[in-house]
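Customer escalation, tier 2.

The customer says the design service returned an amino acid string that "doesn't look like it belongs to this structure." They asked us to rerun it and document both sides in this ticket. The original structure tokens are below, unchanged.
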């Protein structure tokens, strides 16, 4: 240990503070995949969600909830330091995820929710393969493109490509970056469709031998503006993992140059929605 390091450690001990990296060096995060679903409301009330985000350094959130009242409740907290971007989730109840694209009830629900005029996107929704040719999926994709809304799709590559054929140029966040889609296919699709952004939750292959998988690193360096992170609190127990997930992303991103890590951690998410980047002390 160097003399300076010894001195710093001693100072830390003497004044009783942590000698870990100062808080301002911790990467802020933009959580681009979270759900505040009805089952979680009693377990972790909205003020506690805000407190958790604050503690963990999540400074912006793409919020989606089943039903959408969860998102409205989070926004009603009016936390000045946490920017919430609401997405319209087309689910009233859990089983809607299987047939929302064929449901008149969901259509009526979405139409009613759209009237709020607050949503920046639609999703996360689940759709796979040829189901993406359902007429309602086609009209949602075209509506999103017309209104400048994002889609947030949990889909295989086949469904993503069908959606993009229905509404070329529509902005699409690809939940889990396809989850099981091969890296070669992801790379090919990123080249072919510049309007896709990959969200990284549940990509267990991000980590290899305790650090960022070199194949992912190469793709992130090639497309530093095209990835965002997410916690995906799709079931209530997942809320107790948010802190660990934040630490995981910071650990993986530390293998990248700082500017790339910052983009993937929060700057991309903030830029997509025109928010002021959380980590900047001076507005740019
Ligand atoms: Zn999800």
């Amino acid at each position: 240990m160097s003399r300076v390091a010894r001195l710093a450690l001693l100072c830390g001990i003497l004044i009783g503070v942590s000698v870990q990296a100062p808080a301002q060096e911790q990467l802020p995060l933009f959580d681009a995949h979270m759900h505040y679903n009805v089952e979680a409301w009693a377990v972790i009330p909205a003020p506690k969600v805000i407190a958790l985000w604050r503690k963990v350094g999540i400074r912006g959130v793409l919020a989606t909830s089943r039903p959408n009242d969860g998102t409205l409740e989070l926004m009603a907290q009016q936390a000045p330091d946490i920017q919430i971007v609401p997405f319209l989730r087309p689910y009233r109840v859990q089983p809607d995820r299987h047939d929302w694209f064929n449901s008149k009830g969901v259509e009526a629900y979405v139409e009613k929710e759209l009237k709020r005029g607050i949503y920046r996107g639609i999703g996360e929704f689940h759709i796979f393969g040829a189901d993406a040719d359902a007429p309602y999926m086609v009209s949602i994709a075209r509506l999103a493109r017309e209104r400048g809304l994002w889609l947030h799709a949990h889909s295989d590559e086949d469904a993503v490509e069908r959606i993009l054929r229905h509404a070329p140029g529509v902005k699409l966040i690809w939940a889990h970056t396809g989850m099981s889609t091969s890296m070669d296919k992801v790379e090919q699709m990123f080249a072919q469709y510049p309007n896709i952004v990959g969200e990284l939750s549940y990509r267990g292959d991000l980590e290899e031998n305790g650090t960022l998988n070199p194949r992912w690193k190469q793709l992130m360096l090639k497309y530093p503006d095209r990835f965002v992170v997410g916690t995906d609190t799709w079931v209530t127990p997942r809320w107790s993992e948010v802190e660990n997930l934040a630490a995981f992303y910071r650990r993986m991103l530390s293998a990248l140059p700082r500017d790339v890590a910052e983009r993937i951690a929060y700057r991309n998410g903030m830029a997509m929605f025109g928010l002021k980047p959380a980590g900047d002390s001076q507005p740019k």
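Tier 2 assessment: The sequence is consistent with the input. The pocket of zinc ion is lined by residues 33, 35, 124, 175, 232, 234 (CB under 6 Å). The domain at 25-272 is CATH 3.20.20.140 (TIM Barrel). Sent an explanation to the customer and offered a walkthrough call.
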